[in-house]
Amino acid sequence: MLYPLVRPLLFALDPETAHDLTLAGLDAAAALGAARRPPPSPVTAMGIAFPNRVGLAAGLDKNAAHIDGLAALGFGFIECGTVTPRPQPGNPRPRLFRLPEADALINRLGFNNAGVDAFVHNVSRARFGRASGGILGLNIGRNFDTPNERAFEDYLACLRAVHGYASYVAINISSPNTAGLRELQQDSALDILLAALKGQQAKLADQHGKYTPIAVKIAPDLGADELRAVARALIAHGVDGVIATNTTVDHAAVAGLRHAGEAGGLSGRPLRDKATAAIRTLAAALDGALPIIGVGGILSGADAKEKIDAGATLVQLYTGLIYRGPELIAEVAQALA
User: Fold this and answer.
1) Which CATH number fits the domain that encloses residue 80?
2) Could you give the CA distance from residue 273 to residue 271 in angstroms, rounded to a whole number?
3) Contact of 52 with 77, CB cutoff 8 Å
4) What is the Cα–Cα distance from 106 to 99, expressed in whole angstroms?
């Protein structure tokens, strides 16, 4: 109930500054023992037993530096990243914009992160994770200056690094803020990447006696035929899950609003219908072959239920948290229980 009082203060700050302060506050609260516990509603997906269906989407904790603070909010699972093999600063500031009239954000952060070595160090220090039974997804990508024909090398390097710490690994090939990245969703490029990842996954499972599922995160801007082609590739390569969707480059829904013309991915309420439509098309094409994690525009329990009804097994939140605060997690968990 406190967040509606705090939000105007946070919204008076630069979005990235507010983001950093909020995460620091969550860390402090968790250190003092504050924690929320939504009612359990277990579900199994990708061979993993999730305590509830509500997860944190990647992007909020890019360096996995605030896992325990975020875990105290009551998520059933947390996804950190996107991380790249080498550190990179991302795009120049300003690069994150609020559109409060639409409960939306536009970001062009560009995989700003401290690199996979620092990322793994942070994960290893968190209490939430394998040792405690917490479900942790680790989201990986390529460096901005790695050409697509060598992108698989970056993904394999990250997969090897995070494998021992992840409940599942998310493959981000859908951010609009790294030039050319979305081309990896297409045809032969996708086949090459998935074949390399599945081969490495099998080797790591043999070496460590631990099978770590792989989920691919896709864009909401793919057409129906493209979504069906992605579904066929995921099935053919035995991928374990799909995350639908990332942010959209279609800003038509916010035309005329301040910041609507900024380059970057749009998230929040304007993305809801587009993401749900993608889930529905994927679900029909996959026909139960692998689970869908639904994300995009969830600002209420009803929004989350819409994703489940469209074919998702799990859901993730990000922008909704910025506008609704931690109460949204409990509301969604209750709606899906």
Assistant:
1) 3.20.20.70
2) 6
3) no
4) 8
Token pair, residue 158, equals: 């990250």
Domain of 290, in residue numbers: 3-336
CB contact at 8 A, 109 and 267 = no
Token digits for 188?
């032969």
DSSP code per residue over 258-323: TTTTSSSEEEEGGGHHHHHHHHHHHHHHHTTSS-EEEESS--SHHHHHHHHHHT-SEEEESHHHHH
**Does residue 336 sit in helix, strand or coil?**
helix
Read off the pLDDT of residues 42-65 as tens digits, 9 standing for 90 and up: 999 999 999 999 999 999 999 999
Q: What is the pLDDT of residues 116-165, one digit of tens each?
A: 999 999 999 999 986 678 999 999 999 999 999 999 999 999 999 999 99
Return d(Cα 324, Cα 13) in angstroms, integer.
17
Q: How many domains does the chain have?
A: 1
- Give the model's pLDDT for residue 39: 77
Distances, alpha carbon 167 to alpha carbons 48, 79, 139, in Å: 8, 10, 11
Q: At what angle do helices 272-286 and 224-237 cross, to 10 degrees?
A: 50
State the amino acid at position 285 in one-letter form. Answer: A
The catalytic site residues sit at 175
Distance, CA of 167 to CA of 294 (rounded, Å): 18
- Specify the pLDDT at position 131: 67
Residue 176 burial (10 A CB sphere; 0-12, 13-18, 19+):
buried
Q: Can you read off the two tokens belonging to residue 142?
A: 């390529």
- Do the beta carbons of residue 332 and residue 304 sit within 8 Å? yes
Look at residue 324 and give its three-state secondary structure.
helix
Give the amino acid at 229. A
Q: Rounded to an integer, what distance in angstroms lies between the CA atom of residue 212 and that of residue 165?
A: 9
How large a percentage of the chain has pLDDT more than 90? Answer: 96
Map tokens 């013309």 to a residue. 261
